[in-house]
Amino acid sequence: MKKLTQLRAANDQQLKKIHGTDYTYTETVIQYLRGDLRKDPYAIEQAISDLLATLIDAQQNGHKVASFFSDDPQAAADNILKELPHISVTYLFSMYWPLLMFLLIQNILIMLISPSLRFSLSDVIGINFFALLMIGASFARGIFFNKLSRKTIAGLWILLVLMFVVPFLTGYLFRGVAPFAISSPTLIRFSAILCAINLACALWLRPIFLIFFGWTGVWLIAVLGLALPSSELTVILGIAGIVCALGLLFYRPDPLHSSTKSTGIHP
Fold it and tell me: How many angstroms separate the CA atoms of 220 and 216, rounded?
């Protein structure tokens, strides 16, 4: 995501041209805009660029930034977001697919290195819990505004419940459940299915086919390692799989068609 990083860096440099309390005010709005996981981040950065150009010009003419957002900056920011396109399927997969794949495969690859590994229900629940936590954090991101909306307050309560109540409740309900071992044939079938799914996605979403092609290879390593008896070779396969999985976890390609058109947004 080199292009997106460059856009953000350019906007951060523009932000430095705003001074005093207006800087903190504008920074809060920008962080709120960037925190919306539903919107195209390239379009968000373009909207931020347009917004900063307007605010910098206003400040140079003696106006306060706060006056552009009335008394409810979150509502003004939400109005900006309404005009922006949602994230594309390509971007959605490029951002969150590697994380999902890593959470699913990490214990399987570790099992190749340490065959005595046992699973627990917390491993399974943790995958879904992490995803829910990200969603809760997204809705609660407006807590730094001086006026909190009902949506932000509700999102904050959801986040607190996810962070504290769910782990406690899970630990209480499953405290007596011992770790369990999943049979190799079951894990092989599971890995083969994920291998086939990634290969199909590579053919479907060709602009980011390298992500899926890479995960196809990692799941294939898991299949081969699980099909072989425990040995030095399976340990090598497990280490190779973890290294590849970590690399793919942080690999983020730029989409071929990103949103660079000016939004024409003026607060």
Answer: 6
Residue 91 corresponds to which amino acid?
A: Y
Assess contact for 261 and 46: CB atoms under 8 A.
Answer: yes
pLDDT tens, position by position, 20-37: 888 888 998 999 999 888
Instruction: Identify the DSSP state of 39.
Output: B
Cβ(202)–Cβ(90) under 8 Å? no
pLDDT of residue 132: 63
pLDDT of amino acid 141:
78
φ/ψ of residue 86, rounded to 5: -75, 160
| Residues of the chain under the 50 pLDDT cut | 257-267
pLDDT value for 136: 62
SS3 state of residue 40:
coil
Cβ pair 15, 34 in contact under 8 A: no
pTM over 0.85: no
What is the C-alpha to C-alpha distance for residues 193 and 41, in angstroms, rounded to an integer?
32
Joined tokens for residue 198: 């990634």
CB 43 within 8 A of CB 84: yes
User: Look-up: residue for tokens 């909306």?
Assistant: 149
CB-based contact 54:266 (threshold 8 Å): yes
Amino acid making up residue 226: L
Length of the chain: 267
Residue type, position 198, single letter: N
Q: How far apart are CA 113 and CA 103, in angstroms?
A: 17
